[in-house]
Amino acid sequence: MDFYRALSEYYDEIFPLKGAQKTFLHAYLKQESLRSILDIGCGTGTFALELSQTGIRVLGVDLSEEMLEISRKKAQATASTASFSSVDMRDLRSITELFDGVICIGNTLAHVSGEIELKQVLTQFREKGTHLLVQIVNYDRILAKQVKELPIIKTSHLIFSRFYTHRPDGKLDFSMKIEFPDTRQAVSGSNLLFPIKCELLKTALLETGWEVSGLWGNFEKEPWTEDSPATVLKAKCIPG
Question: What is the rounded distance in angstroms from the CA atom of residue 40 to the CA atom of residue 199?
Fold first, then answer.
């Protein structure tokens, strides 16, 4: 079984929507009075479908056709108004609509090639919406502690493992493995990541016309520290 096909098939089992995420997102919509959302790196549509239940317009975009196919099936099954399209976050020109908010959740942003491309992507986000919500792994912690493995996720069907290899150029090779104990099968895949530290992200946002308006270490809204599991940040376009 191809790794990414397997990942898409079991993605919702590995990464189910958690209560804190749901509460955070609905509060965010209400606080910022958002009526439309562009979900960058939507995966299997978990967040897009949840947000569409409030009656707002949602477009989810991703590069994985397998993920998008699952998103569309879920939308049809739940009569959701959310729509989905194959779009690379590095090139959003095919998206002609404007949105109140752009969300980029699930470590999608770390797939940029470096600081220059990060700023290019954030600039494009600003061209599509006036509010931004980003969540990535807290790479300050990963780099400072030279973390080489994330916690293993076990379900009734599988074991999901994730590993980091710290490269001399400062980037990370991110390896993943899905094991199926019942059949003794396993599939693996890897990605190259640009570990975006918190200060770098804030600086890049400022330099691309964003003003940071909130920063947390998780979706429970605990204060961000170098030891936080995640970097959750919201921003607004700087007028002018």
Answer: 22
Tokens of 45: 């549509």
CA angle 177, 179, 184 (to 5 degrees): 140
Dihedral angle of Cα 125, 128, 63, 51, to the nearest 10 degrees? 100
Domain ranges of the chain: 3-138+197-237, 142-193
Angle separating helix axes 65-77 and 3-14, nearest 10 degrees: 40
Distance, CA of 9 to CA of 188 (rounded, Å): 14
Structure tokens of 230? 């995640």
| Confidence tier at 1 by pLDDT (50, 70, 90) | low
Q: How many CB atoms lie within 10 A of CB 239?
A: 7
Per-residue pLDDT at 5 = 86
Q: Give the CATH number of domain 3-138+197-237; options: 3.40.50.150, 3.30.450.180, 3.40.50.410, 3.90.79.10.
A: 3.40.50.150
